[in-house]
Specification:
Strand order of the largest sheet: 5-4-3-6-7-8-9
Oligomer: single chain
CATH class of the largest domain: Alpha Beta
Low-confidence stretches: 1-14
Length: 392
């Protein structure tokens, strides 16, 4: 297998006549988790697929799957102006060197910087995925308000390409972006999350042992980690016989991340179990009683799709993204964000009613089959790529 390295591009030689599809995304593990099936399907359709991203430990996996990798100096949590300018010009350089037929931008910085770079490089077709609006739209204070104003201006510029299709995961994010940009409604499309391979998530009856209540997420305060710990503490102090388990790890590049000292304190208190990062989510959920995500805001969280696919009831918050991933009072309960008391009450309601928990789980599996099958998500993306090339 022949490899080459030109201007930061690493990959195998391909037929020069193939259409070039370039993904630009913040970090490689996010792409593997949420977009790899789309890329693999595009390769089967005859595309030469590239990815520009920050590399952690997924480089070999990406190359083995046939992608051509462009390492990108992108720090998701950085606000250093010099570093951000460097990132922008790195993206622009890749665009100018590669001349892709389609660019698919994913997450905030790639959408903002890539959208502007598209206009400067003359790329004819761009797909922009907005899977949640992120920390900048949740933070409070004068600095946060100024930052939101600047980000709104960047969105207006980045999403102004003539031939663009913007993917949203929930109607609230779509409404907000439309309100701050000049984006036409007919240039948008709604896709409910990144989907799940339903063959890998089996429905199993609830286990006959001490109930396990799982929260699986990046360990961010904005994900409601502290509220989960507080709710678990309340229930354990009331003598509720259940195990409360945190699955995930801190994200040091996110300003909302919990700290190692937080984890040490929670371990010492003993009310929640800290399981760390895991890849066997389907197995974990099959051994659990319910899945909890008390997030403050989401695009459409994959963990709730996975919970539905495994046939597990959900307790989540009544906020954008989360409420769009369940059927209220059918597949799970919605509670107010930032309320550990109401979160505890909803969890306990399911703990005390096994029949209801099972009923909601079965309804969740039906929802996954109807709305979250990865095959449908992939097919929709391939249609977008096909149709956007037809626009002159």
């Amino acid at each position: 297998m022949d490899y080459f390295n030109v201007s930061g591009m690493v990959g195998k030689t391909e037929n020069m006549n193939k259409k070039k599809l370039l993904f630009v995304i913040g970090v490689d593990w996010s792409f593997v988790s949420h977009r790899l099936p789309i890329a693999l399907a595009a390769i089967k359709q005859g595309y030469e697929v590239h990815i520009a991203t920050m590399i952690t430990d997924k480089y070999d996996l990406l190359v083995e799957n046939g992608l051509i990798v462009h390492p990108l100096p992108l720090n998701r949590g950085s606000t250093n102006i010099i570093a951000e300018i460097k990132t922008f010009f790195s993206i622009l350089k890749i665009f100018n060197n590669l001349r892709p037929d389609i660019v698919h931008l994913v997450t905030i910085k790639p959408v903002l910087y890539g959208g502007i770079a598209v206009r400067l490089s003359g790329i004819k077709a761009v797909v922009a995925a907005v899977p949640g609006l992120g920390f900048v739209f949740l933070a409070k204070g004068i600095k946060a308000s100024i930052r939101r104003f600047l980000v709104a201006l960047l969105y207006r510029l980045a999403l102004s390409a003539r031939n663009i299709k913007v993917i949203f995961q929930n109607p609230d994010d779509k409404k907000r972006i439309l309100s701050i940009t000049r984006l036409d409604e007919d240039k948008t499309i709604m896709i409910r999350g990144s989907g799940a391979d339903l063959s890998k998530y089996d429905y199993r009856p609830l286990p006959d042992k001490i109930p396990v209540v799982v929260m699986a997420a990046r360990l961010l305060r904005d994900k409601g980690v502290c509220e989960f710990v507080e709710a678990a503490t309340m229930l354990k102090d009331k003598g509720i016989n259940a195990r409360f388990c945190l699955v995930g790890e801190p994200d040091k590049e996110n300003p909302s991340s919990v700290t190692e000292s937080d984890l040490s304190l929670w371990k010492e208190e003993g009310k929640v179990e800290i399981w760390g990062y895991r890849t066997d989510i389907a197995q974990i959920f099959s051994e659990s009683y319910m899945v909890v995500l008390p997030s403050y805001s989401e695009g459409l969280p994959k963990v709730l799709i996975e919970a539905a696919a495994c046939g597990r009831a959900v307790v989540t918050t009544d906020v954008s993204g989360c409420r769009d991933a369940i059927e209220k009072d059918v597949t799970g309960f919605l509670v107010p964000a930032r309320s550990s008391t109401e979160l505890a009450e909803a969890i306990n309601k399911l703990l005390q009613n096994r029949g209801l928990c099972e009923k909601m789980g079965k309804a969740g599996r039906k929802l996954a089959e109807k709305s979250f099958d990865i095959k449908s998500v992939v097919a929709t993306h391939l249609d977008i790529y096909k149709n956007i090339q037809k626009v002159d």
